[in-house]
Amino acid sequence: MEVLSTSSPLTLHSRRLASSSSNRIDSSSSHVASFAASSLSSFASSYLGVSLSNCKIQRFSTTATNFHRFPPKKRKKFTPISAVFERFTERAIRAIIFSQKEAKSLGKDMVYPQHLLLGLIAEDRDPQGFLGSGVTVDKAREVVWSIWDEANSDSNLSKQQEESSTSSYSKSTDMPFSISTKRVFEAAVEYSRTLDCQYIAPEHIAVGLFTVDDGSAGRVLKRLGANMNLLTAAALTRLKGEIAKDGREPPSSPNARIFGPGRTKTKSVLEQFCVDLTARAAEGLIDPVIGREKEVERVIQILCRRTKNNPILLGEAGVGKTAIAEGLAISIAEANAPGFLLQEESSTSSYSKSTDMPFSISTKRVFEAAVEYSRTLDCQYIAPEHIAVGLFTVDDGSAGRVLKRLGANMNLLTAAALTRLKGEIAKDGREPPSSPNARIFGPGRTKTKSVLEQFCVDLTARAAEGLIDPVIGREKEVERVIQILCRRTKNNPILLGEAGVGKTAIAEGLAISIAEANAPGFLLGKRIMSLDIGLLMAGAKERGELESRGSGLDIANLLKPSLGRGELQCIASTTLDEFRSQFEKDKALARRFQPVLIDEPSEEDAVKILLGLREKYEAHHNCKYTMEAIDAAVYLSSRYIADRFLPDKAIDLIDEAGSRARIEAFRKKKDDATCILSKPPDDYWQEIRIVQAMHEVVLSSRQNQDDGSDESGELVEESSLPPAAGNDEPIQVGPDDIAAVASAWSGIPVQQITADERMLLMGLEEKLRSRVVGQDEAVAAISRAVKRSRVGLKDPDRPIAAMLFCGPTGVGKTELTKALSANYFGSEESILRLDMSEYMERHTVSKLIGSPPGYVGFEEGGMLTEAIRRRPFTVVLFDEIEKAHPDIFNILLQLFEDGHLTDSQGRRVSFKNALIIMTSNVGSSAIAKGRHGSIGFILDDDEEEASYAGMKATVVEELKNYFRPELLNRIDEIVIFRQLEKAQMMEILNLMLQDLKSRLVALGVGLEVSEPVKELICRQGYDPSYGARPLRRTVTEIVEDPLSEAFLAGNFKPGDTAFVVLDDTGNPSVRTNPDSSTVRVTDKKSIA
């Protein structure tokens, strides 16, 4: 390879490689010469991060391999580039150029390993094929094309891309390399070093490709019938031959050294068992994720939290749970995620900037080992070598992992540091110790960690380093624990409380007291070690190994004597249920522990706890919590998150609200960076005017100074420019942010009523009335209940409302519930409908709240309670409640009064944000009799309201005969539905026809029904005893059935309109226009 001279300071070093001197460029040299500049520019920019775009190539000589500037000038001393591609031979660069061409012909925007394989095959001029395997570039290209066509069904598009990309090699490209291809180059460079080569040939690239292949090149070779091991051996044979030509001895086992000294081909655990989704997303191997932006946003919010930042995706099979993780990987790969996930928030300050960076526990142990080792050598100082020896000796694995990747041997480094120290000691005229290695930890110490260090966390040390959050409002509980610990015997407290009330915080508070010397002297010398049960059990694969660690089945019997005598002090922590099921069974063990009940803190104490933790979370999220936000977190979590306890749920609220604010700050920063004007134009004009005014003041002052005025020394102070808003300015978190997170958790709209929601609530009654005809009283009652709840005037300890809809069948009781669910609760699917005809037996009560222990389905929970736990803001419809078994009514008593139920597993399920609706046909006969005036109702139009009131009183009396008084007394409102009048049937028919038209629009056909047909349908479909359901059957017979026959006969095509009219005989018919042939209803008897 010769000189490539450019006009840029970045100049390629002139070097002729001995091994490649015999390899001359063939007839394609002119193409390679004209293409080299763009290819090397692409290679440098994509692989090395070096841009050659500013380098202008003046002229190339294509008659030889010498590229130089023309006309020649006096040569200057070139500065060599310590870059990877500087050592690539001409053959290697040609293979890379060929691979870029192949990638472009396939329509790819990156060079992947399979393209690199094609480039290597195309470059190899061996008559026997690639590395003597018989594989030619044409065969390999066909295989790659076939694999690509299998992944992309549109083969015509691929052919068009092939034809459009057959340009000459001289065409400039900018084809970057994928992550997998970069790894191949890294392996090739590393392998070249192991062979002590000063160049990188195509054979090095081939060995690297076969070694770190991601599977794409191997799939191509497998289809070609080539053996990758034989190809690797052939490449190694060629390289050994080149080394032998130089008079050097090839290494005995180059395969073992392919990754450098000390490295092996063994993959890490992550590489063995995991797939790097982020790398696949960066290479474009993941399909785009569409329509899941909210879910991905929610996952990012959880990942950005300070604690409990582990999302779990729940959903039915096939809904796209894996796609959420892939969408997150795409966001990270495209830099559309916060810097916390991009690992870009590390400090970039210089060393001169003052910092206050604490040291971790592991680092402090390194310092302690360095001090100890300095003492063993009788040194009066601590040098870097002492620290290095301490680091290599008590390393927790992090430093060793770095050195292993660098190919360094920790034992050799330790020996080198010891040699330096011995030399320093010898300079002082002292004799170094005979075996300093044996005394590195001082007398009697070894490198082996103690059991406590292996399986425990020192809470006292963490408290001394400030790594534990402050414990607030638990002074009494901490004092009680200290009292128990200071006892002579049975000095083992056990903390009992529900999950999330702060049991672990009590132990942490005790550790803080000991670290701050606020505990009695008896405890000041002690450490609190937290046992990691998961770490204790990890790796125990052989029988008896777990028992040898002290975690056998008889651990309780082993500990009882020590616990009783006070030799071993233990602070236990568990929930009340676990204590009852585990500890109380063993009376001998339970009496050795003194219980300390940890109750849920009050809302006032929870606010104090959040105020104490506020600074920690503000520093983590770079935000500021207002006092209103803290109050809202406690209030909203207490009211709307019923299955968890304070202060845990309130802390989680502010944590996720801070995460949400952090993401918003990231997006705002990104929008400002991509926006041409980060501020409105008026702000810029205002700043310009301020600068102009200041300039005029300065000019005026100078003029006064030149004139000798006394005011020359006085400048009028104008308003300064507003300071630029910093990118790191903390964002404020208010109560609205807390409410948004609480609403996302519970599904309950707890935010302030927006203008859109206010308009929805104001027009709710009108929307319901347009769908449910003739039931104005029921529509008004249900609308009032929803408005009371949303404004916040309802009883917070009861459901939104408990209503009973009574009336004959087919008048719209269930339809009104569906309409409410669709218009306010999101969709008709939001309704939880329970058909009480399925609950006529006594044992069906367990279907609602779950089967009792010992029965089938105990772990599955109840249909009613589980549905409300997942979606508390919903409509619960008990359809035809009179058919249910009387034991069902006993459950409803508690639900209506207290707003909660307890399921079979003891969990308390809140119904405080659910709307309870029951439908019943009780009283239908009374309504029918009242309509005909047979029981004394006056049904004149002027006294319609009076007759409705009398009919309602009669129905209520009949309900009293069927339902118990305690149930009726807990129902908020009993709504009596009227029977439908004949005049109202036309409105209902129009609604049905409108629904039919919407279904026909999907088929591309319109629908028009004449007025005589509508009157015929209303006349035949009206039955006061059955409501609107006979009308639906009539529409099916007169309209839908003839339409189906017409479609099957092929009378309609997309764009036509179906006309349903009466023919000359008075029978309904379907036609495309008034003069076309008709399709009549076959059942004429039903028309008569």
UniProtKB/TrEMBL annotation:
Main localization, broad class: plastid
Domain of life, source organism: Eukaryota
Annotated transmembrane regions: none
Upper classification of the organism: Eukaryota, Viridiplantae, Streptophyta, Embryophyta, Tracheophyta
Biased composition (Polar residues): 1066-1080
GO cellular component: chloroplast
Localization, UniProt: Plastid, Chloroplast
Region of interest (Disordered), residue spans: 156-175, 701-733, 1065-1088
Protein name, as recorded: Clp R domain-containing protein
Organism: Brassica cretica
